[in-house]
From TrEMBL:
Pfam families: PNP_UDP_1 (PF01048). Residues 103-168 form the Nucleoside phosphorylase domain. InterPro entries: Nucleoside_phosphorylase_d, Nucleoside_phosphorylase_sf. This is Nucleoside phosphorylase.
């Protein structure tokens, strides 16, 4: 059995309520809610794989509006005691997800301005979201393989939340098509 995970119901609107071979989990947005919900789910039942679907902002202008596998996650909203941005005082700077793809920067706020993007881009990420680092870290603690698929919903620039609201349903359909093609359900 696999666990299909999304932060928001809106990211799953194109998915049937029951997907053969998958349990479903909606965690809520942000790193704390993602950590809490996924920890509870993995503590309650053993899964063969966690499959995360969701939206992300593209901070790399060369990325098209498509679905991307995530290879690694970093945090863009933490600073260690020496002032190094992207480095938490006790967590790894990067969580590897075991796939080829793009790196995503996770933080607890919706990135929607050029100034924030200019701070995040040098950390080495091409996408931004609010949960992937937490999902990856939790799955690693439980020794469960994880796959994260992200559909580009916006460009993380001014008024990106308006773009996200307008595209989240289309992103859900892209993600559903990817799950159908790659998992046969």
């Amino acid at each position: 059995m696999k666990l299909l995970v999304a932060a928001l119901e809106a990211e799953l609107v194109a998915f049937p309520a029951d997907l053969p071979g998958f349990d479903r989990l909606v965690t809520g947005p942000g790193k704390l809610q993602a950590t809490y919900a996924l920890t509870r789910a993995l503590d309650a039942r053993a899964y063969d794989e966690v499959v995360v679907v969701g939206t992300a902002g593209a901070i790399d202008a060369t990325l098209e509006a498509a679905v991307y596998d995530i290879e690694a996650a970093i945090q863009h909203d933490v600073t260690d005691i020496d002032g190094k941005v992207g480095q938490h005082v006790s967590l790894p700077p990067r969580v590897e997800l075991g796939r080829d793809g793009v790196t995503i920067a996770t933080g607890d706020h919706f990135v929607d301005d050029a100034e924030a993007v200019s701070v995040i881009r040098p950390l080495g990420a091409r996408l931004v979201d609010m949960e992937t680092y937490a999902y990856g870290w939790v799955a690693e603690q439980f020794g469960v393989p994880i796959r994260v698929l992200k559909a580009v919903s916006d460009r993380a620039q001014d008024d990106a939340i308006t773009d996200w609201r307008a595209t989240v349903t289309a992103c859900s359909h892209q993600l559903r098509d990817t799950i159908r093609a790659e998992y046969g359900v």
